[in-house]
Specification:
alpha/beta, Immunoglobulin-like, Rossmann fold, 3 domains, six-stranded mixed beta sheet, five-stranded mixed beta sheet, about 35% strand
Amino acid sequence: MSSFVSRLRFLLLILVLLLANSIRAQVDAPHVNFEVSHSSLGKVSNAGILVSLFTFKNTGNAVLYILRTDHEKGVSVSLPQYGIQPNDTGSIIVYYTPDRKGKFNEKIMVYTNASDKPAVLTLSGDIKSLSASPQECYSFVLDNASQIKRPMCEGTVINKETKLPIAVAKVYIYSSNQLAGKTTTLNGDFALALNLGLYDFIATAEGYDTAYKYETYFNKNTARLIFELTPRKTRQDTPIVVKVTPLKKDTSVVVVVNPTPVDTPVVSRNKPGLLSYDEYKPNNIVFLIDVSSSMQGKERLPLLKISIEKMISQLRDIDKITVIIYSDKPRVLIPTTTADNKAAIYLGIDTLKAYGMTSGSKGLDMAYKLGVQSYIDDANNQIILATDGSFTLKSKDRRTVSKYASGITKKITLTTVGFGSSRTDLKNLEDLAAKGKGNYIYINSAELAERAILDEIKNNSKR
């Protein structure tokens, strides 16, 4: 009897230990929670590439990793290439290219380290007609009914020295290394129908050097493109005089040789249209963007989008970008990623909409937390706070700003970007930027938006 009781106690002990280990594993495990797992696109006419953004949060207590996805042909997926910390958010971009009309219901199996079973994302809709161009791109992000596109891409080709237009110049437009369109100017101006997407532009004209604009994001906010072509100079070759001494004494012959031009390629990792690796340090930029209802209006959030997109267009693979939005509460819109992942960044910026009340304090805490996590030594580590100024910071927030600006731990500067007309609010932003050892920028026009944030990044990262 005592032997039976002993065995029973031993078995109970084993069960308790197994149960404890199971509970401990669950406590220390990551957990993926998608805000929306089904994106219904509805009826789509002239469909090309359909794009949807699925946002998720790690509600567990360990780092979450997206391992892989399974899906049918015609679907491609962009995944975060890093772990998602507890309570942080991430996003998965799904691209679907339909090959026939009719209803579709695509399933994407997302495997993570949170579970042996995949999370299931669903993309559905009804294709009424297909686009004649495979490069046409419709984005269904957050607001699944929105269709983000701009019909005409416009620009001018001019002589860089005289600033006069160049007639009969050619403009070639590439998407994913495939020719998406080409046009010829008559009076220096051009207009070509394009849709939302990332493009490389090449402008050429007889007698001029070629001009490039790489990785340019095109949408309804894209400003008019200006290509400046440098006239080719006529080569003035200097003859080389070679003195040849023959065998006979006291005689010589002078031979004049015209050199054959040899173009020696210069090996450089610098790319036209992007910041120079040699001139600018790496950047670690955390955007903290006010999307409260006070940011509505054409001279606020739309101008901010223009300014951010222009800056992103020139950043490199060594630069990091994080985007946090806040209204009632802060949320990570774009987890930290390198700036060569431009399509995903642009897509996220396009989703920005103003709504809700303003609460900036928690957003600033999150911005510094992520800024420290993505910190780059010997680089420009910077938070850019964009708002109309109508929020109140606590005294502890101001102490945090001063601590990081002084470089006591890791040096992170704070720049503020202001919109609107409230003198009191804008003065607060100016004071906050001074405390953060950054700059205060006021944007009230598209022309200023084109260069404001980009110039700030250049100034701060100049070697």
